[in-house]
Amino acid sequence: MAETKHGAGGRTGRAHPLGRGSAALAGVAAVVAALGLAELVAGLIPAAPSLVVAVGDTVIDSVPGWLEQWAIATLGTADKPVLIGGVLVVSVLIGAGLGVLARRYVILAAGGIALFATLGVVAALADDRNPVFLTVLVGLLGAVTGIAVLGLLVVGLPRRAVPADAGRPAPADPADPGTVPALSPLDRRRFLAVTGGATVLGVLAGIGGSLLSGRERLDQLRAAIRLPVPARQAAPVPAGADLEIPGLTPLFTPNAEFYRIDTALRVPTVDPDGWQLEVRGMVDEPFTLTYAELMELPHIEADVTLACVSNEVGGDLVGNARWQGVPLRALLDRAGLQEGATQLIGRSVDGFTAGFPVLTALDVEEAMVAVAMNGEPLPAEHGFPARLVVPGLYGYVSATKWLSAIELTGWDVDGYWIPRGWAKEGPIKTQARIDVPGGAVAAGRRPIAGVAWAPTRGIERVEVRIDDGPWQEAELAEPLDVDCWRQWYLPWEATPGRHRIAARATDGRGEVQTDERTPVAPDGASGYPVIEVVVS
């Protein structure tokens, strides 16, 4: 029987009791164990970074703008889970390859795991907010765990099961003629049990790390916050502002259903007790506010519709909420603007930036540093403890979540999305959306209904066209505020057959929604929303 040989580079020659498939499973288990332990350590130590998230962030920052646009347009709010899933799938495939490599070159495979961990550490250290020591510690523990599991499964267990001086005959690995005998059934069961156990423990550790990332404590902190009574409250909702038609979008979007588009792969968990907001840049008197100081300032309340620039015509990346916070103008007046301060840059704790004209912050009274959404402290997904809300502008130039700084600059400074192909200015276009009817309805009297929005301008008219007929003016719900959307409906006698329904809105300035169809890039989609309905 061939004898297992070890040489330079940890080579074991052609003699190995594990087949390629078993070795691949061993490599997968090693990588899963490594990632799981690294995530668990990151969850247990608040300041330690997630290497998986760091790699994902690097991917986001590295891909071309057109690919990011495609991902958001195609995947919508599922883009982040898909990216994290992709990172994990690639990691598993790498692990399988390293497992196969370890049959012949153990040391090289171990080096591959070390390199794999090093790449994660380098990605995490690209963010200067991550402590060097803790980042290296996470990578080191992950690498040691992965190498130990790989060594146990590819070297330790097989050598115990098939010692070099064993003389018992057994079938060789058919995929590798000349190997030592394959594992016996009992030894194979032992191998699979250890492999499966390492994989399961790695998965559980990874899940545990995510659960321990501070979210539970953050929810407790949010629950303990008592919001101050706004010095200027939003107007009461008039009767008839919500038409309450089945299938029609409600006047206020529940927080849990509000769309989320941002660059954060893992929602930042920011302790309000340690959070600060810095107002700096081209100002006479820069200053810093704690969360408690921000809550003590006079607050306003406003109903504002936010929209993502990636929202396709008729899409759902738009929502309406009642926001509460401190007016931006009050903070800028306190700081004192210097000549040439034409842009306000919002900076997030995760490094994201967005910029818009200072005149907007001064002229739009409802522009604010928001701390509450629909009567409760901001959810973590929507920017807790504070974020920017600026009516009339797409989120990519204004809606900085997890706000850490407000910086006054000249117009030559670009926010995150501008070098990636998006327009420097992003005013929200006048839009209508058709919510009902659905794709198939029964004949008879049916409502055609939806919402329309033009923040800072309001909606004055919505018209509907059925097939090639004339434009018909829809009934509008009572207006709430020019900054928030308005519901509308049109009674329709639905006759059997296939029908094509289009809508268009007119804003408070008399501008009619254009029929020119444009893509979302670089400054938002335009065109009429059109649906097809089959009436039976």
From TrEMBL:
The lineage of its organism: Bacteria, Bacillati, Actinomycetota, Actinomycetes, Geodermatophilales. It comes from Blastococcus carthaginiensis. The keyword RNA-binding does not apply. It comes from the Bacteria. PANTHER family: SULFITE OXIDASE, MITOCHONDRIAL (PTHR19372:SF7), SULFITE REDUCTASE (PTHR19372). It holds the Pfam family Oxidored_molyb. Residues 265-417 form the Oxidoreductase molybdopterin-binding domain. Keywords: Membrane, Transmembrane, Transmembrane helix. InterPro entries: Ig_E-set (IPR014756), OxRdtase_Mopterin-bd_dom (IPR000572), OxRdtase_Mopterin-bd_sf (IPR036374). Gene3D superfamilies: 2.60.40.650, Oxidoreductase, molybdopterin-binding domain. Residues 506-518 have a biased composition (Basic and acidic residues). The chain crosses the membrane at residues 21-45, 82-101, 106-126, 132-155, 191-212. This is Molybdopterin-dependent oxidoreductase. Signal peptide: none annotated. Residues 506-525 are annotated as: Disordered.
